[in-house]
Every structure is written in structure tokens, then in C-alpha cells.
Amino acid sequence: MARALHWVLEHTTGAGARRLAPAGRRRLLVPLLAVVLLAQMAFAMVTAAVEQTPTIDEPVYVATAAEYLHEHRVRHNPEHPPLGKLLIAVGVAFADPHVGAPFPGTQEDAGRHLLYESGNDPWRLMLWARLPVIALTLLLGLVVFVFARDLAVPAAALTALALYTLSPDLVAHGSLATLDVPAAGFLLTSVWLLWRARSGRPGLYLPSAGAALGAALATKMSALPAVPVLMALAALSVWSRRPRTVRRALLGAVAVAGTAAAVVWAAYLAVDPRLRWDPQATHVPVVHGLRGLLVRAMPLPQAYRDGMRIQFGLENQAWDGFLLGHRYAGARWYYLPVALTVKTPLGMLALWAAGAIALVAVRRLRPAAPYVLVPAAVLLASAMTGARDLGTRYAVFLPMFLAVAAGCLLAARRRWAPVTAAALVAFVAVSSLRTFPYYLPYSNEAFGGPAKTHLLLHDSNVDWGQDLGRLADRLRERYPDERVWLVYKGSGVPSSYGIEASDPRRAPAREVHGLLVVSDSAAAKAQGRLAELLRSSRPVDEVGHSITLYRR
């Protein structure tokens, strides 16, 4: 495989491409390979979407999307802006679920009610809700491809696209009806358009970059730290074309920010043209100090600003973490770098580092370094200060930005570069494809692979409730008629998938005999009664590398 990739990279770079005949085949080779890469990613994501039951966050987003369609107002889930859920709503509209009267309960209860208590097929509804995110994830792959092609050569674009499509994190989260991949992809698109504005037609690319930035802000508030960075890049793009024109550079930055704010307003108006919002219906915490001043100063809808207050309230809560087998209270600043090291293919880590070095070391690539590396670094630094150590999805922008950087290794014009890149991409491909279709619990070979991830990490890194359907199949096939005790961490309803089980924590220990089934995230943080039960049980099976079956 490495030899084949080397041939491809060699013959899509410089003189190698010119040696390949005839010319028509040269023109078709790169797009054909791009289609193949995107097709395998699409197959992996659709397979995951078909086989996985709802993860913890998905029912809330799907119920909110249905609420947008039927009630046309922002009510549930105000801590996340509406654009990503409007995307999910496209699939929900095709599924056409029965919704009924407005649900008065919490957003979690609303998700459970829609999926399991309203006469809907949860498998069908979840698949339709996930398909728009899958389609967007594939389109964002084209942005990665074109961005790398703009910076270097066709081989760089193929290398970047290969890393994007083979990233276990992107396949895992791109196949879910969640907001992480859309928000990160919109940010990457904005940066790419700012780079294009540097080369020409700023009147076209700056507003487009602002619209993409606005789409990110209208999807997740975690995109807010990127605003000053992208405004600075907008000014840099204008300045590079017209040095000593400070006024024009500032106007470019303001145009990007203004367009972004307009897109956020448009997202809320698309849900409810009357912008109805009742903060009394949702507990909105009071935010003081600098954060409070920042929230009040934002020229955005009241619902958005109250959503920011809710997010700050969540950051002030006490959260537990689990890293490298150790449970702890609070957050650790190094959590994300360590978790990314565990969950990123080794060849990908090497190419990320080599590409970042090439961006800085190769003279003709240096102007692109602030565009590719600085936004990713700022977003990572911001995510590292968060209070919730719950998964690498909080840094899912890194596989996008650093895929572009990795492709730039091919611009170094060293004879070893195509061989090295081909070998590392092949290593990534083998590592990624071996985990199919269990992408969510992926970890690389240095940490034992997907089967060992639950010993090192928890929550959305490994067990996010996605394997309830697979558990039902396993119990029917291998353990029919056995008494089942279940501790499940997720949003699914076990009985809806044919699982009849009792909670072992609510029964005397002497009565808990038979099959004890425990989600790995629950086992990782087990205390008290559950910890005692696990100590007196032996593992006999596992499902999806996220649920372990014990015999007691």
C-alpha cells in the first residue's frame, strides 16, 4: 500500500506529474482519488449512523430541531445556537416524525419523548437526522482538499484529504447528529476564504469568510475565541495586498465581524421571525465581572446572550474527569493534548508535526502559517481552559486544520518527502480501517487500540451510549433467557430495543446474579455499590468496545 501511495504522490507532484501520460489521465487522476477517499469516508459514516443508537447529546438536538419545525421558536437547548440544529432539522423534516403538542419537560425528557414515547421509529428518525451532518462532513473534506491545493501541489491536497477522511474522530463525530464537526468545519472554511482574499478579490472572499465565521458562531459558542483571530487574519489579508493601508485593513476586519453577526441574527430569525424568547422558562444564571460585561456588549440576540450565560454556568459546575485510568475531580489543563495523543493515529501525529514544521520552514509557505496554525492553536488553548474533560470532540477542529498543514510537507521538495508521506498515510489508513465500524472508541496502537481505550479515557472518547442496539443483538444471540442486570450510560431506552434488565444498584448484592452489563464510562468512574459489584464479577464479553458484560 505504501508503494502505491508513493507512486500516486510522486506522479501528482511537479516533474512526476509531467512524466505521466497522456495529459487527460493526469487531469483525471487527482479528482478520481479524491472521490475514492470521500467515498470510503461516506461508507464508514453511513455504516456507523445505521448501526449506532442515539448518543447522549443527540436526542436533545433532534427534539429541538423538531421543535423548530413545528413550534417555530427557541425554547429547549438555548445554550447552543440554532444553525446546527436547523441542519439536523432538514433530515428530521424528511423523517416526518409524529411530534404532538409542545412538550413541557426538560430538553432531555423532550428527546426521550420524541424518540421513544411518540410512536416514532428511533432507528429511522436518528438515521435521517444524521444524514445532513454526514453530507456536510463530506463537503468539508472538499474544503480541506482545495485549501491544501491552494497552498501547495495536488499531492498535498490528496495527502490532506486522506488524513481528513481517515481521521477516526472525524468519521465518528461526522456520523452523528451533533454540532462539533459542523462548527469546526465552518471555522476552517472561513480561514480558507480569508487566505483566498489575500490572493485577490477581497470584495468576494471577505464577506464569504464572515458568513462562514457567522455559521460557526451560530452553531456552537465555542467558536467565539476565533473571532479576534479571524478579524486579525482579515486585516492581514487586506494589508498584504495593499501595504500601509491601515484603514482598509481595519475595514476588512470589521466587515468580517459584521457579516458574522448578521448570520447569527439570520439563524435565529429563521427559527422565529418574531424572536420570541422567555428567559424565565429556562434557568439563566447571572454572570458577573468581565464575562458579564462581555455578554452584555455582544450585538447578538438575547437568546444567544442568555445561552452564553448558561454556558458560563456550566463551566462553573463541578465535573469529574478520567484520564489514563485515573478518576479525578475538576479539569486538568493537559487533558486534551494527552487524549488527542491517545486517540489520533500515530502516522497522523507524525504528519501533523512535519507539516507544521514545513509551514514555518519553507519560505513560500510561511505566509500561510498564521492562517493554518494560529487559529488552531488559539482554539486548542481555549478548549484546554474548559471545565469539562469529556472528550476530544472539543478539539475536533485539529484534524481539519492540521490535515491541511500535513499536506504542506509535500511542498518541501525533498526526495524523501513523498516516500515518507506515503508510508505514514498508509499507516494511518491501516490503523483507521482496522477500527471499522467502531470509530468512537478508537485509540492508536501505542495505547492498545480500541479494545483498551476504556481503560484510559471515558465519555465521548469511548462510550457515549452508542451501542445499546448492538447490546440487544448480543444478548439475543448469546445470552437468551438469562437474567440481565444493566448499568447503562446514555440517552437510549433499553426496553425500546428489547432489553429487559434491572438496575443492580437498587437490589441487595446477594440477589445480583447472572449477567451484569455495565457501560465502560460507568465502570471507569464506579464508586460505592457499583464498584463492589464489579470487584466480585468477572468480564466475559464486550460490545462495541464500549460496554462490558460480566458474570456474577
What descriptors fit this protein?
globular; 4-stranded mixed beta sheet; mainly alpha; 23 helices; 552 residues; single chain
- How many beta-strand runs? 6
Biggest sheet character:
4 strands, mixed
Compressed to H and E, one letter per element, the order equals: HHHHHHHHHHHHHHHEEHHHHHHEEHHEE
Helix content: 55-70%
Task: State the gist of this model.
By secondary structure, this protein is mostly helical.
Outline the structure in words:
The protein has 23 helices and 6 strands. Strands 3-4-6-5 form a 4-stranded mixed sheet. It is globular. The chain starts with a helix and ends with a strand. It has helices at residues 2-10, 14-19, 23-51, 58-71, 83-95, 107-116, 122-151, 154-166, 168-174, 180-199, 202-217, 226-241, 246-271, 289-297, 302-315, 335-343, 346-361, 369-384, 398-407, 416-434, 468-478, 520-524, 528-535, and strands at 320-323, 326-329, 484-487, 515-519, 538-543, 547-551. With 552 residues, the protein is mainly alpha-helical.
